[in-house]
Amino acid sequence: MNCSLNAEGIRLCQNVLHEKEPFQRTGEMCAAIYVLSTVTGYVLTSALLLKCPSLLHRRKRETFRSRHISHRGGAGENLENTMAAFRHAVKVGTDMLELDCHLTKDEQVVVSHDSHLKRATGISAYISQLTYAELPPYLCKLDVTFQKECFCEGGEDKRIPLLKDVFEAFPKTPVNIDIKVNNDTLIKKVSELVMQYDREHLTVWGNANNLIVQKCYKENPRIPILFSLKRVLLLVGLFYTGLLPFVPLKEQFLEIPMPSIMTKLKDPARMPRSQRLITWLADTLLMRKALFDHLTARGIQVYVWVLNDEEDFKRAFDLGATGVMTDYPTKLKEFMDKQITKST
């Protein structure tokens, strides 16, 4: 009797299990369909907003647009960051002057790339250790950082200028200011000069250091800011995960290098394999037309630096870059004029 009851119980359990299997399979299928539809909806929405960001974001107001940007005033044609370089670039027809700022001991805002004067003047001292009157002149011959084995020999103008000199000389020319050191006084004084010369609509400032950019924005949110390195990395991460179209951005300018130019600055045969791989990967991730087009549609200008030959000029513009930063303003202007002639 017990044996027959046990056998009957086993059969009942098996029947129940067989009856549950279809329901279990149905539940799993519903879950899979839900996940698939959710992912598909996310991908399609992200793709739509990537192409049409105005559906979610108000386009940033552009007070100027720059295609031709002179790096340090055009460091390949005149001594970098001098008034002679800036005058030449403006005469050529540049849309923007890019320069670097430091603070002297007597709190004067000067235009210079290096904090230490050895490379540019031969004097072993920091700008912050000297008053403006004590600053030495530039050397007659300076290296061009982004051109392999190239030097620029200057004329009579070897003076390190004040930022106010640039503002006074070029009241209608946009200026791109790299705040080179994390100095609250420097940031405050640059902001005061920008306001004094009514240039909030003609200036962009920042640095690769995210803390400096945050301080700039806090000091004067009316002056457009650049993406810091940290924010560039975040931007790339958002782009490749599809989240970028959903995220608001306070920056108005993206300035990024074209990593492939490293192979022109260094002998590729002597570059370690790991460095060549990193250069290739960085170039592949950063130089994306879809990214540039999306940012441009949101009113964020994209500048690629520092390009010094026609091949790189063409690649940057073909990818949708708003502008190109160069050490050779004449060469870039001639290239742009030729492109206009071809299109007509």
From TrEMBL:
<keyword id="KW-0812">Transmembrane</keyword>
<feature type="transmembrane region" description="Helical">
    <location>
        <begin position="31"/>
        <end position="50"/>
    </location>
</feature>
<dbReference type="GO" id="GO:0008081">
    <property type="term" value="F:phosphoric diester hydrolase activity"/>
</dbReference>
<keyword id="KW-0472">Membrane</keyword>
<dbReference type="InterPro" id="IPR017946">
    <property type="entry name" value="PLC-like_Pdiesterase_TIM-brl"/>
</dbReference>
<keyword id="KW-1133">Transmembrane helix</keyword>
<keyword id="KW-0378">Hydrolase</keyword>
<dbReference type="InterPro" id="IPR030395">
    <property type="entry name" value="GP_PDE_dom"/>
</dbReference>
<dbReference type="GO" id="GO:0004622">
    <property type="term" value="F:phosphatidylcholine lysophospholipase activity"/>
</dbReference>
<dbReference type="GO" id="GO:0046475">
    <property type="term" value="P:glycerophospholipid catabolic process"/>
</dbReference>
<comment type="similarity">
    <text>Belongs to the glycerophosphoryl diester phosphodiesterase family.</text>
</comment>
<dbReference type="GO" id="GO:0070291">
    <property type="term" value="P:N-acylethanolamine metabolic process"/>
</dbReference>
<feature type="transmembrane region" description="Helical">
    <location>
        <begin position="232"/>
        <end position="249"/>
    </location>
</feature>
<dbReference type="InterPro" id="IPR052271">
    <property type="entry name" value="GDPD-Related"/>
</dbReference>
<protein>
    <recommendedName>
        <fullName>GP-PDE domain-containing protein</fullName>
    </recommendedName>
</protein>
<feature type="domain" description="GP-PDE">
    <location>
        <begin position="66"/>
        <end position="336"/>
    </location>
</feature>
<keyword id="KW-0443">Lipid metabolism</keyword>
<dbReference type="GO" id="GO:0005789">
    <property type="term" value="C:endoplasmic reticulum membrane"/>
</dbReference>
<dbReference type="Pfam" id="PF03009">
    <property type="entry name" value="GDPD"/>
</dbReference>
